[in-house]
Specification:
By secondary structure, the protein is of the alpha/beta class. The protein is built from eleven helices and seven strands. The protein has a seven-stranded mixed β-sheet with strand order 2-1-3-4-5-6-7, with helices on both faces.
């Protein structure tokens, strides 16, 4: 088992560190500067000494730099690394460039998981790695010891990889939050209970079947329903009492509807004429008049 040194005691680092310790790896030390970090380290990494960064580095085979993305390069450059060590970060957005010029073998290793601040089960989580070939066996050993999976992505594709995750996960939060707000505006007493089974089934179906899981008014070609949705959404005054643009949810709906129309056309579920009518309705929303195109004519 590898000796692991943890630089930083944030939510992701301590959760991964705790999982590695539970898998039998020896955590030789952790750095923790703030009271919150020290408390988190004491709670999730009991018995692991809190040490200065140079001492943690000197004791480790694998140095895990678990600091905010913008600080990875700055922190890594201060560490007394050798060519017998591996230096690893957990950022999804960054590849190997933050470790450029360092003696240790660089590894970018990102778990596709959210870290709320406590222990996290990492078995069956997918870790996406970027590293030189010489590091592959070490990376695979670390990940598989957690009961997790590892896949590899090229250094130049890290930004694309992370964009896919952010678009799917972060924007899902935005989308669901907007949907909950719309249901509240409609007088639904329990919007969470209303949405939960539908969202769970839709997510499961989409993960299994991709765009073939699409249902709803666009898949059915129901142009009038989409026009009615846009008219209703433009009447929102700001969800949950917050100061948000009046038509932000309507705009989000319209942009996603446009992408959905294009997807339904591509897979043959919408004919060209129905797609044209959808686009006229959506363009009418952009012009500020739901259900009308830019010439002011109501679609037939």
């Amino acid at each position: 088992m590898e000796r692991i040194g943890l630089i930083g005691a944030g939510r992701a680092g301590t959760a991964v560190g705790a999982a590695l310790a539970a898998a039998g790896h020896r955590l030789v030390g952790v750095t923790a500067r703030s009271d919150a970090s020290r408390d988190r380290a004491a709670r999730l990494l009991p018995g692991v000494p809190v040490l200065p960064a140079d001492e943690v580095t000197a004791l480790a085979d694998v140095v895990l730099v678990a600091v905010p993305d913008d600080l990875i390069r700055e922190v890594a450059q201060t560490l007394p690394l050798t060519d017998a060590q591996y230096i690893v970060h957990l950022s999804g957005a960054h590849g190997l460039s933050p470790f450029e010029g360092l003696a240790a073998t660089p590894v970018a290793l990102h778990p596709s998981m959210t870290f709320p601040g406590g222990a996290v089960q990492l078995d069956d989580v997918m870790f996406t790695a970027t590293a030189p070939d010489a590091a592959r066996s070490v990376v695979e050993g670390l990940v598989k010891s957690l009961g997790a999976q590892v896949q590899w992505v090229a250094d130049e594709q890290r930004a694309m990889y992370h964009a896919g995750l952010a678009h799917g996960a972060n924007h899902l939060t935005t989308l669901v939050s907007q949907a909950l707000g719309v249901l509240r505006e409609a007088g639904v007493a329990d919007p969470v209970a209303t949405l939960r089974p539908l969202l769970a089934a839709t997510l499961d179906n989409t993960l299994r079947s991709g765009h073939h899981a699409l249902t709803g008014p666009i898949a059915r070609g129901d142009v009038d329903t989409v026009a009615a949705h846009l008219t209703a959404l433009q009447g929102l005054q700001g969800l949950q009492g917050r100061q948000v643009p009046r038509d932000r949810t309507a705009t989000t709906y319209a942009e996603l509807a446009r992408a959905t129309v294009e997807m339904a056309v591509a897979d043959g579920r919408l004919d060209a004429e129905t797609a044209r009518r959808f686009i006229e309705v959506l363009d009418g929303h952009r012009a500020g008049v739901p259900g009308q195109d830019r010439t002011g004519e109501t679609p037939g």
